């Protein structure tokens, strides 16, 4: 709730240089009043008091709730979410014998428990699964189950304020990486200048920009010189904003062209214990989602439940990791379904892939990439849900994770990707569409938990936790997770399946005049990145995000906001292993975000975001309550509940002296100002009483003489 006028500067009369205020003598009009020294002192005190009040209000008052953007329309502050029983049968449904008529045939009447399973998958030699599974329950619904549950908004970013940037130390929620990417055969460099807001959207730009890098390779563990010929951006909310459970939604316009392969836009979640592209933080952590002890994985899972001791505030006997939930990864391109690499799939390019990646994965009897699983090779289809215009992603079942520096093979492990591809079209690249994820961790309320993926409110994939516990003991994630938005470029994603004759497909440089360095791209790729899109000043393909919103069930104790929760703390582990989360040139993983202090132009009406966000005082921004960042452009987001409080002196049972410094200083300023006003008035009365003549000071000509 907003408790201040929208124009706080006007309410506090902070428009310096206005009528009645003191300006420079050289700029004062002829015949104007020349203030006395005491008057100047009074005015100075008034300014100091006003600014002190504003600073104090910043410390004491919050004008918005938690991470909610005040510009989110009121109609979107709560939503109705289908009850999970609308998608999955009760964990322990009642089983009743069917009544058999005298003829010996079962009746046609529905059973007591609804039928929630989709139609069976086709035989494994079939080229594609059934396209239209059955979702509707039978005529008799589950007793005492509400069809919808009310979820409340707990986080939103509408990206309505233009010119926001996201360098480290600028924004309380987001950090734009400025770092080379050594993962997934990346061809790009992540630059902080390629993420910004414009025209009410977050923009992640990808361009054919050369970047020379001299840095530490997280994979080879050596320093190296590298040249990347593409620049893009990745936004992370790592260790700033995390959540456990809920419904997250974003409206996006995908970058580039639907029929040109090569870009890899994504919107995803990752457990806070791993920071993406910081490979040292994720080794034997990603994407583990096993809380129970399994002795055969005690080396492979760095934070295994089998460990006998508990460190960093973690609970003994609870395994930890950083599972991955891909809300979408999009692959554009011209290859149609049932052709080329998609010969056995009913979905071709462009498509969105929706995945859950967990470890431990199946270590034996796995399906091969490009082939449909045989009996017992994959997760049980009756416990998975598939939406229209989609099919199982048989091109990728997971990863074998091997670490060259590990002392033995016991540190290796399989991770699984349970994934579904959904057909997209040109409209997803030219207009906004909603991508949504409903994540319910395991709990008393929801059993083994589940995850549902949606596009424009159509269910695309549903995974029940019971379906993934069977093979190796992985679970629906329960780790506090952060949000990632990025566009990558990798020759492993969307590039031509085979190289043209005579092309080595080793070097990729759109600016090169050599055919060998451009022959491996999809036709039109370089032209797409060199073109300047309408409304932009620089070339590149722009991934645009209209908003991101997160809703949670406040009646569900598992739903939490926070990166370090009582059940899954992360703070002390990250602090104790800070080097793994930090670039070589940094001293800390994340810089603190200042409230104001950025340079500004006093003459600009847009300085510091305008009066609504802040004011420009002596060339520096001073933020209004509820705003933060050097130029006051960001909402001052915060967690409503700090689950894991920072260690303090009080933890050592040493009582620090209590201070009320801010109130003492403010009170002293007010009293001093009042005394100055009183003294000036007293002196004037004394002069008049003693018969002193008033002095005439000539500022202009004789006609301009004024008494002072």
From TrEMBL:
One Pfam family recorded for the sequence: SKN1_KRE6_Sbg1
GO biological process: (1->6)-beta-D-glucan biosynthetic process; cell wall organization
GO CC terms: endoplasmic reticulum membrane; plasma membrane
Superkingdom, natural source: Eukaryota
UniProt cross-references to CDD domains, sorted A to Z: EGF_Lam (cd00055)
Annotated region described as Disordered, given as residue ranges: 87-141
Subcellular localization: Membrane
GO molecular function: glucosidase activity
GH16 domain residues: 133-556
Transmembrane spans: 660-679
Membrane topology: Single-pass type II membrane protein
Chain intervals with Low complexity compositional bias: 102-116, 128-141
Gene3D superfamilies: 2.60.120.200
Keywords carried by this UniProt record: Cell wall biogenesis/degradation, Glycoprotein, Membrane, Signal-anchor, Transmembrane, Transmembrane helix
Similarity field: Belongs to the SKN1/KRE6 family.
PANTHER family: BETA-GLUCAN SYNTHESIS-ASSOCIATED PROTEIN KRE6-RELATED (PTHR31361:SF1)
Identification of the protein by name: GH16 domain-containing protein
Annotated source species: Triparma verrucosa
């Amino acid at each position: 709730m907003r408790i201040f006028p929208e124009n706080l500067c006007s309410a506090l009369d902070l428009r310096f240089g206005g009528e009645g205020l003191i300006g420079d003598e050289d700029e004062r009009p002829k015949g104007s009043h020349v203030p006395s020294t005491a008057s100047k002192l009074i005015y100075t005190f008034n300014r100091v008091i006003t600014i002190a009040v504003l600073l104090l209000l910043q410390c004491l008052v919050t004008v918005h709730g938690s991470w909610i953007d005040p510009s989110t329309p009121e109609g979107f502050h709560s939503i109705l979410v289908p009850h999970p029983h609308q998608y999955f049968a009760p964990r322990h449904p009642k089983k009743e014998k069917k009544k058999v008529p005298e003829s010996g045939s079962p009746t046609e009447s529905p059973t007591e428990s609804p039928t929630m399973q989709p139609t069976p998958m086709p035989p494994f030699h079939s080229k594609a699964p059934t396209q239209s599974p059955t979702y509707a329950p039978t005529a008799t619904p589950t007793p005492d189950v509400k069809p919808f549950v009310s979820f409340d908004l707990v986080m939103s970013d509408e990206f309505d304020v233009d010119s926001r940037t996201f360098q480290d130390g600028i924004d309380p929620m987001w950090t734009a990486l400025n770092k080379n990417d050594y993962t997934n055969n990346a061809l790009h460099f992540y630059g902080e200048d390629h993420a910004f807001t414009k025209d009410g959207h977050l923009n992640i730009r990808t361009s054919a920009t050369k970047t020379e890098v001299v840095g530490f390779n997280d994979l080879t563990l050596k320093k190296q010189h590298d040249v990347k010929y593409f620049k893009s951006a990745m936004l992370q909310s790592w260790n700033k904003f995390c959540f456990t459970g809920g419904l997250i939604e974003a409206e996006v316009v995908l970058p580039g062209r639907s029929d040109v392969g090569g870009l890899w836009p994504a919107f995803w979640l990752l457990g806070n214990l791993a920071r993406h592209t910081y490979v040292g933080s994720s080794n034997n952590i990603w994407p583990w989602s096993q809380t129970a002890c399994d002795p055969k994985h005690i080396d492979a899972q760095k934070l295994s439940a089998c460990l006998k001791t508990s460190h960093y505030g973690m609970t003994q006997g609870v395994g930890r990791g950083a599972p991955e939930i891909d809300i979408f990864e999009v692959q554009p391109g011209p290859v149609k379904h049932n052709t080329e690499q998609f010969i056995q799939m009913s979905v071709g390019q462009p498509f969105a892939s929706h995945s859950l990646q967990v470890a431990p994965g199946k270590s034996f009897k796995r399906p091969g990439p490009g082939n449909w699983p045989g009996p017992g090779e994959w997760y049980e289809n009756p416990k998975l849900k598939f939406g229209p215009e989609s099919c199982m992603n048989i091109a990728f079942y997971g990863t074998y994770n091997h670490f060259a520096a590990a002392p033995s093979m016991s540190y290796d492990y399989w991770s699984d990707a349970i994934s579904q591809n959904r057909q997209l079209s040109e409209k997803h690249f030219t207009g906004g569409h909603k991508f949504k994820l409903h994540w319910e961790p395991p709990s008393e309320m929801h059993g083994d938990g589940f995850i549902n993926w949606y596009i424009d409110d159509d269910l695309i994939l549903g995974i029940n936790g019971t379906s993934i516990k069977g093979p190796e003991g992985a679970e629906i994630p329960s780790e506090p997770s952060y949000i990632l938005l990025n566009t990558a470029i990798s020759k492993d994603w969307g590039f031509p399946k085979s190289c043209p004759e005579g092309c080595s497909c080793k070097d990729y440089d759109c600016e090169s005049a050599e055919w060998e360095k451009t022959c491996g791209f999809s036709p039109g790729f370089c032209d797409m990145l060199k073109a300047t899109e309408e409304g932009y000043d620089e070339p590149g393909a722009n991934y645009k995000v209209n908003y991101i919103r997160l809703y949670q069930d406040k009646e569900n104790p598992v739903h939490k906001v926070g990166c370090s929760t009582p059940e899954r703390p992360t703070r002390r582990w990250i602090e104790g292993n800070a080097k793994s989360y930090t670039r070589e040139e940094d001293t800390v993983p994340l810089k603190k975000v200042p409230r104001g202090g950025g340079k500004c132009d006093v003459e600009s009406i847009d300085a510091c975001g305008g009066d609504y966000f802040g004011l420009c005082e002596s060339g520096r921004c001073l933020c209004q309550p509820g705003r933060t960042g050097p130029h006051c452009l960001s909402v001052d987001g915060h967690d409503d509940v700090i689950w894991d409080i920072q260690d303090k002196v009080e933890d050592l049972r040493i009582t620090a002296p209590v201070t009320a410094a801010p109130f003492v200083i403010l009170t002293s300023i007010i009293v001093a100002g009042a005394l100055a006003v009183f003294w000036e008035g007293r002196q004037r009365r004394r002069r008049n009483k003693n018969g002193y003549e008033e002095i005439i000071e000539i500022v202009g000509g004789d006609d301009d003489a004024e008494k002072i």
